[in-house]
């Protein structure tokens, strides 16, 4: 029969091997997750850039629309003044 202390050492060695394999597996998954997060971050940055560009376009379009409305109001006011 094996000595109890040898059995403990034997179990600890087996556990150490299992833990090392598990650590390697976790590290590989962490690397994949980090890579995915980097990809997601870059896509979010791209979306932010596009949204900013669209915002500028919408504001410019709205400004042009307001300007045209102001033009129409001035023309209408002038026509009404001429009729009066």
Describe the protein in words.
The protein is mostly helical and 84 residues long. It is 95% helix and 0% strand. The protein is built from one helix and no strands. The radius of gyration is 36 Å and the shape is rod-shaped. The model has no long low-confidence stretch (mean pLDDT 88).
Helix content, binned percent = over 70%
The arrangement of helices and strands along the chain is: H
The averaged pLDDT comes out at: 88
- Which outline best applies? rod-shaped
Low-confidence stretches: none
Largest sheet: none
Query: Could you give the count of β-strands?
Result: 0
Number of helices: 1
Structural category is mainly alpha
Distance between the termini: 120 Å
Set down the secondary structure blueprint.
Elements: H1 4-83
In a few lines, what is going on in this structure?
By secondary structure, this protein is mostly helical.
What would the keywords be for this entry?
single chain, 84 residues, mainly alpha, 0% strand
